Structure formats: C-alpha cells, structure tokens
Amino acid sequence: xxxxxxxxxxxxxxxxxxxxxxxxxxxxxxxxxxxxxxxxxxxxxxxxxxxxxxxxxxxxxxxxxxxxxxxxxxxxxxxxxxxxxxxxxxxxxxxxxxxxxxxxxxxxxxxxxxxxxxxxxxxxxxxxxxxxxxxxxxxxxxxxxxxxxxxxxxxxxxxxxxxxxxxxxxxxxxxxxxxxxxxxxxxxxxxxxxxxxxxxxxxxxxxxxxxxxxxxxxxxxxxxxxxxxxxxxxxxxxxxxxxxxxxxxxxxxxxxxxxxxxxxxxxxxxxxxxxxxxxxxxxxxxxxxxxxxxxxxxxxxxxxxxxxxxxxxxxxxxxxxxxxxxxxxxxxxxxxxx
Length: 338
Description:
CATH class of the largest domain: Mainly Beta
CATH topology of the largest domain: Jelly Rolls
Helix content: under 10%
CATH architecture of the largest domain: Sandwich
Strand order of the largest sheet: 1-20-17-22-15-12-11
Largest sheet: 7 strands, antiparallel
Distance between the termini: 48 Å
Strand content: 35-45%
Order of helices and strands: EEEEEEEEEEEEEEEEEEEEEEEEHEE
Number of strands: 26
C-alpha cells in the first residue's frame, strides 16, 4: 500500500465486520416471487429448513419465517438497529405497542435501550409480480449511560432523506444518500434521541454512494480518531490511493485525510460507516449488548422475568393488511402515514 490512508482491506463475509461504535452489519438481498393470500411466497417451500432458512434457494431465503419470510418476535437490549430498506417492505411490531410498514428507501432507527421485543417480517404484497427485497441492518452501540433508555423508534422516510448529486470533472456523477452525519455542508435527519449519533462531535456517518462508471468522489477529512470503513458491495472495481479494490471488500480508511475514490467501468455501490469510538467495554451475547458479563446475565434475567413488556400481537410473525401502505404507529399512539 502506498501510504497510511488505507489501513486494511478485507473480503466481506456474513455478517460484515464493523468497528466501534458499530457492532455488525448485514446485507439482505432476496428475489422473492409473487405473494400468496397470506403475503408469503406463492410457491412451494418444500426442501427448506423452515425456521432456520438462511441458504438461498430459488433466489430467496425465509430466514426464521415459516409462512412469511423474516424474523418473528425476538428480544434486543442495549444497542440500536438502523434498517435501510433499498427495495421491498418490512412490517414492524414491538412490545411497546408500536407497529408499522416501511420500505422502498425508508430507514427505521430503533433504540432497543433497556429492552424490547420486536418482529421484522417481509410481506410479499404483490400477487401479480415479484417482490424483490434489499436492505441493510446496521447495529450501532449505545453508550453505557444510554443502555437504560426507553425503547423507541424513529422513521426516516425516503422522501425526507437528503440525497446529494455530485459531478466530477469528467462529467460523471456520484449520488450520496445521507442517512446519518454531515457531508458537503448538508446535515442528515436527526437520529433517535438516545443515539451516539445524536452528538455531532461523535461524527457518526452512515451513507450510501452510487457512482457512475469512471466517477470520482472524495471522502472528506474528519478526525484522526475516527473509525471509517467503506463497504464496496456491488460493481467491479474501484481505485483508492493507488490500490485497486475488487467488489465485495471492506476497506478500513484513515479518518484525518481526504481520500479520493475513482470508480471503474461499471456502476459501483458503496456503504460508508464512520464514527468516533465509544471506547467502552463490550459484552455481547446474541441479541443483548452490554458492558460486562454480569450485565449480560442481568439482561437475560430481566427478559425471563418481564419479557420486556410482553407480546400483545398474538402470533409471533404478524403482518399488516396487504393494502396498509407505509405507516408508523408508535407506542404512544402517534401515527405517521406516507
């Protein structure tokens, strides 16, 4: 490597490796077929390990779903999920009494805080055509003082998320979808209130780059203590500081220097995650993220005792009506419709 702008290059696995303040990132892309009357796949599910279906078959996975693909009710505590849906829909239900449907560019920012149960199902609402799904789920840690925050979520609706279109000297364009942070003098929508990203001094950035062939984009300098990772997940190759990076690689970059990205001859799609580290111990066991092993044991005991408020939705894999549209009904009764 020519200098210290590039600190590491790593092939992507599953899940994608992240750094403090992030915990994990997953990328789901499934070619779901037309839906049936229950909003599940209108084709046979024989030969699948239903309940644990994580192997692509016929272009899609059912995950933990048995009728509708997705993730039936499960607990979380001590961190946040940022779910970016590029295509398709997600139905959300949780133990605060909240529910909703979002997708096709929407982002849900969920603070699990002191604990909640939620389900994430992928309803196949179209019966006359395919229902493709593509999303990222990013786990963002909470500082110790915020791990007892009340569970809540905030919707960043697609129509409101800033999108920057930048043209390089050769006339080629880079489109930046700004989920969190500040770029080119533009601020993202506000994250959830308890989030590490709420303080601008933490420099949390989450953004998606779409680069035309041969486009050039420069990541700005931020700070020497910043953890910055670039995830090149679709395309052919990009050029960074004299290095050729092939698709499906993570590149750890320095945070205090500008870094020019030059795309190759095919469109490129990149996720950038960056932020100042929280710098606290992390104890994680499954869906619980705390600071010590004792706190993890306490979290399990709390869940066994309280079920984090319980589950009021009957079955563990609920979905909204097919015609529901995009909406968010919060635990306090507030309703947003799109």
